[in-house]
Each structure stands twice: as C-alpha cells, then as structure tokens.
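Today's session is about reading a structure prediction critically. Students often jump straight to the picture, but the first step is always the sequence itself: look for stretches that repeat, for charged clusters, for runs of hydrophobic residues. Only then move on to the predicted structure, which in these notes is written as discrete structure tokens rather than atom positions. Here is the chain we will use throughout the hour.
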Amino acid sequence: MTAVPLGIPRRLVEFTLDGQDARVPEGATILEACRAAGKDVPTLCEGDTLTPKNACRVCVVEVEGARTLAPACSRRAEPGMTVLTDTERTRHSRKVVLELLASSVDMSTTPKVAGWLKEYDAKPDRFGPDAARLNEEPRVDNDLYVRDYDKCILCYKCVDACGDQWQNTFAISVVGRGFDARIAVEHDGPLTDSACVYCGNCIEVCPTGALSFKSEFDMRAAGTWDEERQTETTTVCAYCGVGCNLTLHVQDNDIVKVTSPHDNPVTHGNLCIKGRFGYQHVQNRD
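Below is the predicted structure for this chain, in token form.
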C-alpha cells in the first residue's frame, strides 16, 4: 500500500462570530466561517471556484473597530477579531443593495433573492420604473445558450471564468463605463462571431440566469420549466478519457441541462462543449 504524503497542517484562527467563539483554518474567509457555523449570509457575486470580486456587496458584515462594512466573501478571518453578521447596519446595507439591484435588473430567476427581499423588507419599486438599467430582448444567436442581459448584475463571474481563472479564451469582457457598463463579447456582436468556444463555463457560474441553456430558456418561455420535478444524476463524461463528472438535470425523462460538481478534482465545475452540450444523442429515440 502506497503511503499518501500529508500536507502542511493549517493553523486555526480563533475569533468571535456573533458572540460565539469560532475557529477556522488560517486563510479562510469570514463567509466560509459563517457557513461552517450555519449562518445564512446572502451573497450573489461569490463563487466557490473563483477568486472573490467584491462586486455585489450583499454579504457585508460588521467588523469591530473597522470604519466600513467588510465583504465577507473576501475578508480573511483574523485572530481575535469580532464579527457581527446581523446588526441594524448590515441589514440596512443589504436592504439597500438588494433594492438597487432588483430595481435595475430582472432578478426573477435568481435563486433565493425573493426570500432575501422579504427578509430584509426591501422595496425595489420605490425607485420607479425608470430605474431599470437595460431594456433589451434576450440574445438568441445560437442553439446552445442565451444571453439575457436584462438579468445581469455585473458580477464579473463570467468574465473570470472565460478569462485567466479557468478557460483562458477571453471572449467575454466588460464594455462601457459607469451606467453604460455591460458584459459583452468583442465588439458587442453575435456570439457566433466571437472567440467563444461554447464551453458553457460562464453559464455554470452565472448567479442570475442572465446566461442560460437554450433548452431552459425555451422551457421557461413555454411555462414548462419546473425544477421541483427535475432529478439530478452525476455520471462520467464518455467523450474522452479525462474523466470529467457530469450532473444530468432530467425532467419528464429528458435531459434539460448539464452541470458539473464544483468539488470534482478534475473539472472543478468546468466542462468543454461536448460535456456541457453534447447530450442529445442520449435521448435520440428515432
């Protein structure tokens, strides 16, 4: 039996979290500590396979002695620090951020947001209809996935996944400045004219449904999309010998989309075009 070498043990950081003693490995974020303690701190732009971008500011917490609220997704836990996650200040900040986001973009397909709006008594309608940042039709220019920028919160996760953090294709970027900033491919043209390789890793990390499988988009438009009726089965992709894991989302005995487990040591949630979109032959019943 071959011995498996052990890595250098990580030291534990001790600090106070909402009045309770907390211990997390050195380098862990406050958000990781909150999740370990079972605390539901909301977040949108954070991704477990990406470097934190601090874009949405929904996860802010109060650190004793700090002048400003700290984003829990990127702030590292430090020895002796005191963190408060549910103060009047943090709740007000989250409420305003949620109101601003929900008033400017369509968050109807963003998981958990409806519950957060209720929990923090957020009222996006108070800004009026003119607060909407965009008003354009979804871009359906290929048979694999749809870009609906009316749902985009500019979290930059798709840019990072397409760029130097995973795919290194660099087909996606931010264009414009200020209120005109938006996600786009080069020259803001059709996806088919861009450097996109259709790996779909941007869809995997998108938190709002701004990027979605065309199958999901069509089913939502037809009113047949129902996640409660869907089952998930994880298997191994058969296209090559890499061993990527696929999670098949099945509704009414049809595969409706494919994801990949983020904790898989081979793919970390990423796939190629064959693994992500090449499932039609499985259900070819002709």
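Discussion point for the tutorial: The helical segments are 30-36, 88-104, 113-119, 157-162, 201-205, 214-222, 273-277.
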